[in-house]
Amino acid sequence: MNSELRQDLVSGDWIVIAPKRGKRPHQFLRKTKRFKAPIKGCPFEDPLKSGHELIFAYPESASIKNNWQVMVVKNKYPVFVHKKQGVNKFKKGPYSVVEGIGHHDLIITR
Questions:
Q1: Are 72 and 47 in contact (CB under 8 A)?
Q2: CB within 8 A of 86, min separation 6: which ones?
Q3: What residue ranges do the domains of the chain occupy?
Q4: CA-to-CA dists, residue 89 to 12, 16, 57, 86, 97, angstroms
Q5: 3-class secondary structure for the chain?
Q6: Residue 10 CB neighbours (<10 A)
Q7: Measured between alpha carbons, how far is 56 from 85 in angstroms, rounded to an integer?
Q8: What is the tens place of the pLDDT at every residue in 62-106?
Q9: How is the beta sheet containing 70-74 ordered, strand by strand?
């Protein structure tokens, strides 16, 4: 099942239902004593080296000089999928449901 948005029956709010979300890496769920990690080990210090696909960087020459201030990269584990088709709305039991279509990118700042 892909992700979907369901409308709450009481509040009318739209809620993300993402059953495949549990399949992402669980390395961040461990409860360990926090320590200050060196910048060299940070996957967001140089997102391109860690396999993220660049969408946008500011300043524009940042991808070459590595002195970027803001970078937008594709999320490796997105909740929403990008489709160029229209959104399908349907009923699932008592709920109004919309497919989980859209963008789920990462914005990284320094």
A1: no
A2: none
A3: 4-25+37-109
A4: 15, 14, 35, 10, 6
A5: CCCEEEECCCCCCEEEECHHHHHCCCCCCCCCCCCCCCHHHCCCCCCCCCCCCEEEEECCCHHHHCCCCEEEEECCCCCCECCCCCCCEEEECCEEEEECECCCEEEEEC
A6: 5
A7: 24
A8: 555 567 788 888 888 888 777 777 777 888 889 888 877 778 888
A9: 54-58, 70-74, 105-109
For the record, the structure tokens of 79 come out as 């909740």
Question: How long, in residues, is the chain?
Answer: 110
**Side chain identity at 83, as an amino acid letter?**
K
Among left, alpha and beta (phi > 0; psi -120 to 50; other), residue 45 is: alpha
Contacts for 108 with CB less than 8 Å, ≥ 6 apart: 44, 47, 70, 71, 72, 73
- pTM, two decimal places: 0.57
